[in-house]
Specification:
- It contains five helices and seven strands, in the order ββααββαβαβαβ.
- It starts with 6 loop residues before the first strand and ends with a strand.
- α2 packs antiparallel against α3.
- It has about 210 residues and is of the alpha+beta class.
- About 20% of the residues are buried.
- The strands form two sheets. Strands 3-4-2-5 form a four-stranded antiparallel β-sheet. Strands 1-7-6 form a three-stranded antiparallel β-sheet, covered by helices on one side.
């Protein structure tokens, strides 16, 4: 039978605030014709208008990807004249350009921003958080051991937990879509929204230190 050694449990945590490094914008475009494949970015009129506006602003063509096409037909027969909804992903590498990119999307009559997916340098932040939490735990363990009159002999067990607080994307689509449905032209610039692009990561550790006999 294995006997558990004398241990003391120490808990510590570290909070890290992370700013987004870039953002992926997911956009749907209502098209009046059906074009499949990457040719849709050039030959589907409504899509090409958006692509041209974004690239003219300065985005790279490689930053705009066609993710899918949903065909809408009332007869059940696929025709080139059938309407379609195009799903695009637009990568915004420079967040200082985000407001302008959102305005460009909002200015396109047939385009709707569905959501924003913020991207963060998470790995580095988690490593920093873990190192800081371990240092806090060791310092606390030294103090506890000294006050108890025992010596730290090593680590018996360790559990790491990460709490990742993802910030919500702005409900931009809910604001713009009703205006388009009513035929209302949004004033320029159309930035009546909250844009947040940071989140909190908390790294916590529970460590059982082996100690000399009490």
């Amino acid at each position: 039978m294995t006997t558990k050694p004398d241990t003391i449990k120490i808990s510590a945590s570290q909070r890290e605030e992370i700013s987004a490094s870039h953002a992926d914008l997911f956009v749907t475009v209502k098209g009046s014709s059906v074009v499949s494949g990457d040719q849709a970015l050039k030959k589907a009129k409504e899509v090409s208008q958006l692509v041209e506006a974004l690239t003219s602003f300065g985005l790279s063509p490689e930053a705009i990807h066609l993710q899918g096409v949903h065909i809408e037909t009332s007869s059940g027969v696929l025709l080139k004249s059938s309407s379609a909804t195009y799903r695009l992903k637009v990568k915004c590498e420079k967040l200082d350009q985000l407001a302008e990119v959102l305005d460009i999307i909002a200015s396109q009559k047939n385009a709707t921003l569905e959501r924003i997916d913020w991207k963060y340098p998470e790995e580095a932040a988690r490593e920093r958080g873990l190192e800081a939490a371990l240092a806090k735990a060791k310092s606390k363990a030294d103090k506890v051991a000294k006050s108890l009159g025992v010596k730290l002999l090593g680590v018996y067990d360790l559990i790491e937990n990460i709490y990742d607080q993802e910030t919500p994307y702005p409900q931009f689509a809910a604001q713009v879509a009703p205006m388009k449905a009513r035929g209302v032209v949004a004033p320029e610039p159309s930035l009546g929204m909250d844009i947040q692009h940071s989140k909190t990561v908390i790294v916590s550790v529970d460590i059982w230190y082996r100690v000399s006999a009490f």
